[in-house]
Structures are given as C-alpha cells and as structure tokens.
Write a structure and sequence with these properties.
The chain is α+β, with helices and mostly antiparallel strands. It is built from six helices and three strands. It comes from Azotobacter chroococcum.
C-alpha cells in the first residue's frame, strides 16, 4: 500500500479490539496468506495496521488506481474471516468467492450450500480499509448477522 512506510502505526499493541474473534480470525487469515514469511516477526497490531485508513492515509492513496496484490490479499482475508465465522455460527460450510478486476471492481460472495449468504459489490478496492478496528468489527458483525440470519431462515437451501 502507498502509505505503509510513510506514517506511524495507528493500531496500538494494547488495543482491546485485537482480542475480538473477528480480528483474531483476520490475523490468522492474513498470516496464512503470507507465503514469504514477512509477517513472522510482526506483531498482530502491525499485521492489521494497514487495514486502518485514517484521513491522512486515505489522502495518500490516489482516487483512481489499481489494487496491488497485498491489498487484494487483505480483501480476501476479510471475506475468508467472515466465511469462517459464518461456519462457526451455523455449523455449515461457508465458501467465499471473490472476483476483482485489475481496476479494483468486482464482487464478493459467501456461499453456504446453494445459498448466497452474503453478496457485496466491491468498488475502489485499492482503497480497501476501515476507519478503525472498531469500524471493521462493526461492519463485519453487521454482515455476519445478516448472513447467519439468512442461513438460518433458509437452512434447507444452505444444506444442499
């Protein structure tokens, strides 16, 4: 991302949000995608810090741009974490399906059986991030609540 080496970290080591189940799952997902071992010596706060886009960080990212592989892996980690939590809540396999063009547009789906439990249109993926870890947790819990409710209401389709 454009700002990683230019600004001070926003996520602090003692941030209580680091203990939230979603954030724990995000760390697991991000570390699992790190095939070069870059995150091996990094703290959880440092691994998550690029997901927090303050006003200053957003200003440093061009309005128009193509997402890099690191940013795309963060998007995938987010939806993988949501799928994992949907599985935990419903007891059914949840599979994320993500399609992003080189220009940063696309769609993220989470399928549970034959049911589309979550459908999110993605725009400006090169600017993917949240105002804070709390904002990330709030948004994820909102999406998680809708998805698990949908799965529970249409369980017969989800079990196909």
């Amino acid at each position: 991302m454009y700002y990683e080496d230019q600004q001070e970290p926003v996520v602090q080591e003692d941030d209580k949000s680091l203990q939230d189940p979603l954030i724990r799952q995000m760390v697991i997902q991000l570390r699992s995608m790190d095939s070069y071992g870059t995150y091996d010596t990094w703290s959880d706060a440092r691994v998550l810090d690029p997901l927090v886009l303050t006003k200053e960080r957003r200003k440093a990212i061009p309005v128009v741009g193509d997402p890099d592989e690191t940013t795309i892996s963060r998007v995938k980690a987010y939806y993988n974490a949501l799928a994992q939590l949907i599985e935990r809540e419903t007891g059914l396999l949840a599979v994320p399906v993500i399609n992003i063009t080189h220009e940063g547009f696309g769609r993220a789906l989470i399928l549970v059986g034959k049911l589309v439990a979550l459908d999110k249109v993605l725009r400006d993926v090169h600017r993917f991030g949240f105002d804070s870890l709390e904002a990330l947790i709030t948004e994820a819990n909102k999406q998680l609540g809708k998805a698990t409710t949908l799965v529970n209401e249409h369980r017969t389709v989800a079990e196909l």
